[in-house]
Design a protein that fits this description.
This protein has one domain: Porin (Beta Barrel), CATH 2.40.160. The protein has 2 helices and 18 strands.
């Protein structure tokens, strides 16, 4: 577990240092707060969570951004409740907008392998409480410590190609833990069809070196509130995929009607063992899981999350019930010029 005072002091020091700097635009504080419950195999966990995110523009070309996480977990036991807490920075990076086609990133960044780690993992975005079983393939510790080159290589009316390449140093620091690795991702987006297809590659450069390969496909048809997202990842010892779809209807008064706020979610996923030497963070046996979610989008960026999952494997099947309420907030940290 991380030490709370050390983490809080780091966040406060960062904010104070920039507050009295030469920032020309107003920093924004965003993020989400929630209360989540999970009953896994008959054991229930209650978890209040806060994930604040800050974006601090400095002039026209620099941006400092960071996200933290604070979790309190309560598990019933014979004496009442067993309590654990965790406080840490998820990432802390600086961005330099070098040109229309290039952004240079330095610091502790989310590993850009696949899509879930960078785009869907925050509590206020994820449709389900849990991430996919393969979320750790190619991302290592989830963050890298080093640098990125990213941007739009080509942008046309009919298509665009985005890229990101990264290098991460090895770090055993309690806060900025990372593996020595390198890799990248390239994505093709077709705006007329609202389809994105991407390929990811990662190379672990420490210990037993190995390669990671990934592919993702996203589809969000025009004039609908239907979304289809999917990923495949392959490592030396295991591989797997997930497919997730969610939908909101506009047929009964639009998305802001009480019917339009209902959002069914379905995620299907499988993992496959290639050998039994190392887990790669995946189950040690072939596993299948299906999640059925029913979310409700309240006004003022508040969501109610409910889901039921059934997981199948040779070590035993189990049910997973999850509920929660999440609020997304966004406001300036202080009055701008």
């Amino acid at each position: 577990m991380a030490r709370p005072t050390k983490r809080i002091a780091l966040v406060v020091a960062m904010l104070c240092a920039v507050r009295y700097g030469a920032a020309q635009d107003t920093p924004l504080l965003s993020g989400g707060v929630g209360f989540l419950t999970s009953t896994n195999g008959g054991n229930t966990t209650y978890s209040p969570v806060i994930e604040p995110l800050i974006a601090i523009p400095i002039g026209d070309r620099f941006l400092v951004e960071s996200r933290a996480i604070l979790i309190e977990s309560f598990v019933p036991d014979q004496t009442g409740y067993d309590h654990n807490h965790f406080i840490a920075l998820t990432y802390l990076q600086g961005d330099y907008l070098a040109s229309r086609h290039l952004t240079i990133v330095g610091g502790s960044f989310l590993t850009p392998f696949g899509t879930f780690n960078e785009r869907l993992s925050p509590v206020w975005i994820n449709n389900l409480q849990d991430g996919p079983l393969i979320a750790g393939l190619g991302t290592g510790t989830g963050t890298g410590l080093g640098g990125e080159l990213r941007g739009s290589a080509i942008s046309r009316n009919k298509y665009s190609i985005d890229y990101v390449g990264y290098f991460s140093a090895r770090s055993g620091n309690e806060q900025f833990n990372s593996q020595r690795s390198a890799g990248g991702r390239v994505s093709l987006y077709l705006p007329d069809n609202r389809v994105e297809v991407g390929l990811s590659y990662g190379r672990l450069l420490q210990g037993t070196q190995e390669n990671f390969y990934g592919m993702h496909v996203w589809w969000e048809p025009k004039d609908t509130a239907f979304r289809l997202r999917s990923e495949f990842a392959r490592a030396h010892h295991a591989q797997g995929y997930w497919i997730e779809a969610d939908y909101r209807t506009k047929a009964f008064g639009g998305l802001d009607s009480w019917v339009g706020r209902i959002e069914p979610v379905l995620r299907m996923q499988q993992t496959f063992r290639r050998d039994q030497i190392v887990s790669d963070g995946l189950p040690l046996v072939n596993t299948q899981r299906v999640d059925f979610g029913l979310d409700y989008n309240l006004p003022h960026n508040t969501r109610i999350l409910t889901s039921y999952a059934r997981q199948f494997s040779s070590t035993g099947d189990k049910n997973i019930w999850e509920t929660g309420i999440v609020y997304r907030f966004l406001f300036p940290t202080w009055k701008g010029k």
